[in-house]
């Protein structure tokens, strides 16, 4: 019998919280749970969410009466802690609630596997001394404030989110959902992340310096369910010898109709989409294995290494060997 282990995720909800900064990522994690639970074989992990705070009754920008659990004395090893957004042009970090939460973060340091911040929640981690020398970001209104709190931090502007080892920070509000999708992709794969984005009716937004840029999430900024089914099938097995007829069967339409439908909805042809995902799969092999180029090309479904190198050169400045994992 397969068992799913739990990733413990603690959302810290402070007084004057922005609820969307909590609810958006939390819903993304819950959607991921549904897709993981339906996967075969049933041997993956899931998220278990906790909403905690220094005060059990949380004031928020909407005036809703929100009850949370007290900050726990003990958390599981490798838990994720999410510091969510706070309202206001200037955040007061010297309140009793802030001091209690900072003390709690220090106590749990050996148990926290990932630090995740949404919007002005990054300021809490900075105040706790956790961001010294690290790359991070926050809402554009609080960039200078963040830099003042931790002068040694590499504060990045114009970013959806930033990643530095086990520290993940986002620009806030909907960018927190982008970060959640990135984390879901890391844990459960690109197909799960794209399924979550699709069911949350999200557009994939990417900036020029965004470390989350991923071909697995691109070209899905549409609402046509038949095309999504085709993309889901390709993502599960990009290396398969996909014929237009087999893809049309997935879409439940004629090959000719699929050609037009896919191009109109996804913005690329089925062949271009398959090649893009095969190249992304090849990048994963290069960065995580020592397989020779010939075997990488074969495993990813290319006709031969020559085709692989030719298509690679169209998308990448450097040859495949440049991205090779170091062993």
UniProtKB/TrEMBL annotation:
Which InterPro entries does its entry note? Class_I_gatase-like, DJ-1/PfpI, Homeodomain-like_sf, HTH_AraC, INH-QAR
Q: Which residues form a coiled coil?
A: none
Q: Which UniProt keywords apply?
A: Transcription, Transcription regulation
Domain HTH araC/xylS-type, chain residue ranges per copy: 228-326
**PROSITE patterns under this entry?**
HTH_ARAC_FAMILY_2
List residues traversing the bilayer: none
Read off the PANTHER family from this record. Answer: ARAC-FAMILY TRANSCRIPTIONAL REGULATOR, HTH-TYPE TRANSCRIPTIONAL REGULATOR RV1931C
Q: What is this protein called?
A: Helix-turn-helix domain-containing protein
């Amino acid at each position: 019998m397969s068992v799913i282990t739990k990733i413990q995720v603690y959302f810290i909800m402070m007084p004057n919280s922005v609820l969307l900064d909590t609810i958006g990522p939390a819903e993304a994690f819950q959607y991921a749970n549904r897709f993981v639970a339906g996967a075969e074989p049933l041997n993956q992990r899931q998220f278990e969410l906790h909403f905690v705070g220094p005060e059990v009754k949380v004031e928020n920008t909407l005036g809703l009466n929100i009850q949370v659990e007290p900050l726990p004395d003990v958390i599981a090893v490798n838990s994720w802690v999410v510091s969510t957004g706070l309202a206001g042009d200037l955040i007061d970090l010297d309140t009793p609630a802030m001091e209690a939460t900072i003390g709690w973060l220090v106590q749990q340091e050996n148990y926290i596997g990932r630090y995740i911040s949404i919007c002005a929640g990054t300021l809490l981690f900075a105040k706790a001394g956790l961001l010294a020398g690290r790359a991070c970001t926050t809402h554009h209104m609080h960039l200078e404030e963040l830099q003042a709190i931790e002068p040694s931090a590499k504060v990045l502007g114009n970013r959806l989110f930033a990643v530095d080892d086990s520290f993940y920070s986002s620009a806030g509000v909907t960018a927190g959902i982008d970060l959640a999708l990135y984390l879901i992709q890391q844990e459960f794969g690109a197909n799960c992340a794209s399924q979550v984005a699709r069911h949350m009716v999200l557009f994939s937004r990417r900036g020029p310096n965004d470390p989350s840029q991923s071909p697995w999430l691109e070209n899905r900024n549409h609402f046509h369910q038949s095309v999504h089914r085709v993309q889901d099938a390709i993502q599960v097995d990009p290396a398969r010898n996909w014929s237009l007829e087999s893809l049309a069967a997935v879409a439940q339409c004629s090959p000719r109709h699929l050609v037009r439908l896919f191009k109109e909805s996804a913005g690329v042809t089925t062949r271009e989409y398959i090649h893009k995902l095969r190249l992304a799969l090849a990048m994963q092999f290069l960065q995580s294995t020592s397989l020779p180029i010939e075997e990488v090309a074969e495993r990813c479904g290319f006709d031969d290494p020559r085709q692989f190198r030719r298509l690679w050169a169209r998308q990448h400045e450097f040859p495949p060997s440049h991205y090779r994992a170091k062993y």
